[in-house]
Amino acid sequence: MSGPLASSSSRAWGLFGQDRLVSDFRRAVIAGPRHAYILAGAPQSGRRTLAVAFAKALNCLEPPAPGEFCGHCGVCRRIDRGVFPDVSIFDLSAQAERERASGKNLTLTIATVREVTSQVAYRPSEARWRVVIIDDVESMQDTAQEAFLKTLEEPPPYAVILLLTTDADVLLPTIRSRCVTVRMQVANASAVEEALLHRGVTEDDSTRIAALSNGRVGWAMTAAADRTVLERALEEEKEAAGWLAAGAFDRLVRAWMLAEEFAKDRESVYRKLHAVQRAWRGILYRRHGVAATGTIAQGDMSPDMLTPLSGLSIARAMASVDECITDLEANVRPRLALQTMVISWPDLPR
Q1: CA-CA distance, 139 to 105, in Å (whole number)?
Q2: Long-range contacts of 227-232 (CB under 8 A, 24+ apart)
Q3: Which of 91, 116, 137, 182 is deepest in the core (most CB within 10 A)?
């Protein structure tokens, strides 16, 4: 399914730029769902929105079309409020609240797995399907995953289990083999901008936020509602532009500083690396005269000034950022990963 009809269906599910996935899940509602799914994607990429919409489509009392949900019946409204008895959501914050934990909850525990198992075992009290959504699954240690295996191996016929994670590959192969893995699509900037305009955001802000979003509609909505999030992203983009424009020594110094920061605030470093990735992409667009947004894309460097830079050298710089992020996630020493990245960058015209 594609085109305006698919796009309209995606918007009805609260998603933009995910037409194919919405079409697939609509078909699953009509034909009958599989017992377990893994929804993998970056934070704020729409995983939970998709999971909750699927739960509504499975149980809606007044679907306007096959595979859809109305959004206004008692079941849909209660699912949205988190009070429908046949749809349960588990995550780190809910676990902390249940356990009244002080400090950070860093992993989903075996106690939470047992609670999930008990919820899956209950027959639906009002609806056709019992839907159990488990977020932050990447935090589940191997022992907890192993405890969860039996539930996946012998699920009751009325249960649908949705595992939400940033990275499906960190789950045990035995977990993955018993689920359908679905990877969230990266929305393009026009889809993110459309979503923002649909929410009443001004055209100028929609264009600017979409350019900073990395395809994450959820982040874009947060940035539109919270000016501090947008201002932080703009500041990080300016820092990235300055890093790329610096000389070789200053680039290395900045890399070493970020390596020190990584031990204290990983997410901040990842955000800054994504800003660097956007900056290199902006340079690539400007090098080839493609219209784009962003600090460097809108900067003083004309396509003629960038002619000495080859498209291949810019592409290698972009790839180096990807490799650095992968290395950091694999626990390579931060200083080595970041230093290796900047050494591969071409010099910018001065």
Answers
A1: 10
A2: 230/205
A3: 137
3-state helix, strand and coil shares in percent for the chain, rounded to the nearest 5? 55, 5, 35
Distance from C-alpha of 314 to C-alpha of 330, rounded to nearest angstrom: 25
Q: How far apart are CA 316 and CA 324, in angstroms?
A: 12
Q: Average of pLDDT values for 7-30?
A: 82
- 3-class SS of residue 89: strand
Residues 162 and 57: their CA atoms lie apart, in Å, by: 14
**Which of 48, 63, 37 is CA-nearest to residue 127?**
63
The tokens for 94 are 């809910």
Q: How far apart are CA 220 and CA 210, in angstroms?
A: 7
pLDDT computed for residue 5 by the predictor: 39
Give the closest residue to 280 by CA, choosing from 258, 311, 256, 323: 311
Question: Tokens 């992993």 appear where?
Answer: 107
Helix axes 189-198, 217-225, angle to 10 degrees: 40
Q: In the chain, what is the greatest distance between 2 CA atoms, to the nearest angstrom?
A: 69
CA 78 to CA 80: how far, in whole Å?
5
* Euclidean distance between CA atoms 282 and 348, whole angstroms: 13
Label residue 179 by pLDDT band (50, 70, 90). very high
Q: Which residues pair with 160 in a beta bridge?
A: 131
Distance CA 56, CA 79 (A): 7
The string of pLDDT tens digits covering residues 221-234 is: 889 999 898 898 88
Between CA 120 and CA 152 the distance in angstroms is 10
The one-character DSSP state at 168 is G
Task: Compute the average pLDDT of residues 177-200.
Answer: 87
Pairing of strands 87-90, 180-183: unpaired
Higher pLDDT among residues 300 and 207, named by residue: 207
Residue 251 identity: R
30, two tokens: 């009509």
